[in-house]
Design a protein that fits this description.
With about 500 residues, this protein is an alpha/beta fold. The chain has helices at about 10-25, 35-50, 65-75, 85-110, 115-125, 125-130, 140-160, 165-180, 185-195, 215-240, 245-250, 265-295, 295-315, 325-345, 345-360, 365-375, 375-390, 400-405, 425-440, 460-465, and strands at about 200, 205-210, 395, 415, 445, 465-480, 490-500. It has a five-stranded mixed sheet. It has a two-stranded antiparallel ribbon with strand order 1-2. The model has no long low-confidence stretch (mean pLDDT about 90).
């Protein structure tokens, strides 16, 4: 018996959804990498291709993200000389696949293609998701694809009781962790779904379906994910054991959870409201009411997901709007369900509300996407530095250093930074190096953002006591920290450092 043919109408629908997600992203694709992480993935992917061994990115490494970066540069490298463009393209593809996966997932949950279509459109144009997938954050795009796929197969297993779906679900969860490590936190809603589906509360007594909690079910649900993560992290473990993770966790500038209810949570919720709009929030509240009446389990799953993940991601020390994409996922089908109910009452009213909602969410970020499509401010600033500094200059920079090294790689300029420390001995060693550069008649410059990460102001105090700072120019730059749905334009000043003459 041959494989079941997929109706041409369904194929056209899936292709259409992919195109609706992809075309606007290609239209607004960023002129440059914009974000530190994007360029880091490009560089790590390039090194992986050049050496034939996996080069992990910063932090916890993001091995699958690097592999995807390398793959994109290998495939698109035949007609694109720039690795950045290759990563931008595969990010758009990943985001479009994630949108398609979300449609399939919601269609499976509700057995309703209209709800699935409305939900997928709202998800695709959610401002943080739309924005980050125009400037190459392939980690977000593919991590979402894998998380959605994981929960799709989890629900398929729960309904069909077929263990192969449980294995698929576990593998996809492992792939998500290897793409973006913080997706590990979806384990908690995952456990909630599995346990609550396989238990019932009757007369204040919890009844557990024991056949769902057997050793083989545990093995099939846990080990595929562990083996997947281990396979991608094996080179790192062999080279440095767990020291890499310990180093990342102990880094004071690494994102850390700050507690349950912090001012960061208030900021995060304000970003979520801004992105969903007041109309979206109203539709979400209405949707919760409708879903509770008809599909209580999905309602509880949605509430648990949003609350648990928002309390984590919304309280991170380096919180950003893009962190809220994952916690917001159920809100999209809750809103989609609400619009479907309105459409059943008044057909064109529901479609009109959907159109207004999408326009309302996209309109505020349109000028931001258009600006980044037309300008690569990090490159423009690097070219400005090239024009005002000597060929053999030393330039001190912190987070911007990765862009300067990339765009000034063909010159003899050296991009470095002072140590972020309160240790006087280490700081003295750095200034001894700087004195040697000056004695070699090499000019030393520092950009304004290069003063960051000076925890005890040890660098700044020593600098002001022993050196002169001379403003040599300023140029427009864009801050990429936490700026997925807002512009971060500012004039970055450049200072020349000279040794102060002793009197």
């Amino acid at each position: 018996m041959g494989a079941e043919r997929i109706p041409s109408s369904k194929i056209l629908l899936l292709v259409g959804i992919f195109a609706i997600a992809a075309i606007p992203r290609f239209a607004f694709i960023s002129k440059g990498p914009f974000h530190y992480d994007t360029l880091d993935y490009v560089i790590a992917g390039k090194k992986t291709l050049e050496t034939g061994s996996l080069h992990y990115a910063h932090g916890v490494g993001y091995p699958l993200t690097v592999i995807l970066s390398a793959f994109s540069q290998l495939i698109f490298g035949f007609f694109l000389a720039d690795g950045i463009k290759a990563v931008l393209i595969i990010t758009v593809i990943g985001a479009s696949l994630a949108t398609l996966a979300f449609f399939i997932f919601v269609d499976f949950l509700f057995k309703n293609k209209k709800i699935a279509l409305f939900s997928a459109l709202i998800f695709s144009f959610f401002p943080p998701f739309f924005s980050v997938t125009t400037y190459g954050r392939l980690d977000h795009a593919f991590a979402l694809l894998f998380v959605i796929s994981s929960f799709y197969f989890l629900f398929r297993h729960l309904r069909a009781k077929n263990v192969k779906y449980l294995v698929y679900s576990s593998v996809f969860l492992g792939l998500a962790v290897c793409t973006r490590f913080s997706t590990l936190w979806t384990v908690f809603p995952y456990l909630f779904v599995y346990v609550s589906w396989n238990s019932r509360l009757k007369k204040n007594k919890l009844i557990v379906f024991k056949n769902a909690f057997t050793i083989d079910k545990f093995v099939f649900s846990v080990f595929p994910a562990i083996l997947t993560v281990t396979a991608f992290y094996l080179p790192m473990f062999l080279n440095s054991g767990i020291s890499r993770f310990i180093e990342v966790i102990s880094n004071p500038y690494q994102a850390k959870w700050m507690g349950l209810f912090t001012p960061l949570l208030t900021l995060s919720i304000s970003w979520m409201v801004k992105s969903l709009t007041y109309l979206g929030i109203a539709l979400g509240i209405l949707g919760i009411y409708f879903i509770f009446k008809e599909k209580k389990f999905i309602c509880f799953f949605s509430v648990v997901w949003v609350i648990l993940l928002t309390l984590y991601f919304g309280n991170l020390s380096s919180v950003s709007p893009r962190y809220l994409i994952l916690p917001s996922l159920p809100l999209f089908f809750v809103i989609g369900f609400s619009i479907h109910k309105i459409e059943q009452f008044r057909k064109y009213l529901g479609l009109t509300i959907l159109a207004i909602l999408i326009f309302w969410t996209v309109y505020p970020i349109y000028p931001i996407l258009e600006f980044r499509h037309s300008h690569n401010m990090q490159k423009e600033f690097a070219m400005y530095l090239k024009n005002i500094t000597e060929e053999n200059a030393i330039i001190l920079a912190k987070d911007e250093g990765i862009f300067l090294r990339y765009y000034l790689e063909s010159t003899n300029r050296s991009i470095t930074s002072f140590p972020s420390t309160c240790n006087q001995v280490k700081m003295d060693e750095f200034f001894e190096r700087m004195d040697s550069w000056l004695e070699e008649n090499r000019s030393v410059y520092i950009i304004e953002t290069g003063f960051a990460y000076d925890p005890c102001r040890l660098f700044l105090n020593t600098l002001l006591q022993n050196y002169n700072l001379t403003l040599v120019g300023k140029h427009l730059n864009e801050d990429w920290h936490h700026k997925s749905i807002s512009l971060g334009l500012f004039e970055e000043r450049v200072f020349k450092i000279t040794k102060r003459k002793k009197i």
